[in-house]
Predict the 3D structure of the following.
Amino acid sequence: MLREFRTDLHVHTCLSPCGDLSMSPRKIVAEVLRQGINIIAVTDHNSAANIGAVTKAAEGAPVVVLAGMEICTREEAHVLAIFDNETPALKLQSVVYNALSGVNNPDVFGLQVMANELDEVEGFEERLLIGATDLSVEDVVRAVHKLGGLAIAAHIDRESYSVIGQLGFIPRAVTFDALEVSELTSDKDARTRFSDYMRYVFVRNSDAHTIDRIGAQTTRFLLEAPTASEIGKALRCEDGRKLVSVETRIDNRQSIVR
Ligand SMILES: [Zn+2]
Ligand SMILES: [Zn+2]
């Protein structure tokens, strides 16, 4: 039976150097539950190291944690990868780590905290997670699809760190599963500005780096189950699955923008 799921598929943790230290597994799960969000994806920059902790922190709770990552490509474009569980995400992490160079300077970029499900510090990632990998947009999308995941172009309306902002267009050879629009752009403006890409579904997520930003944007899907493959079907409008609506929260008021 199909039912609606409210999703926020772009949530950072304290592992992301720009992520607030309060973005710990238990605090994230508590806020997601408070807001009645049904599915989140943990999408730290170039790493999957905190996915397991958030997943464990959510055990037994009415929320599904999908395993994600926000990869920074060679072109300095951000691409979201979404998987059902940690296993393919960790395989992608190996590919990404091999293509990543540099050491983090916490004083400049921030701490990269690896936490456990009790919100205890397990260690600090030393790689420069905020840096660009040596993988092209095409390489990343191909790697994500090979591992059975979804590849979503992140915040395409932003000037910096977006595929369209960096390249000016989406390369023909790249097949994203969806495009993400930030709250900077209304749905109406997105349809005008990105009219060349209307073959894609436009999703909205929070890109939360702080607790108060979680759920700032959400997308409702009609799915049979809370899985990445079901979301993939909804993005392709298969078997009755579909995107139902997107919401953007403005000044703590929920306003439907589509
Ligand atoms: Zn980003
Ligand atoms: Zn992000």
Notes: Helices lie at 25-34, 51-57, 86-98, 106-109, 137-146, 163-167, 187-193, 228-235.
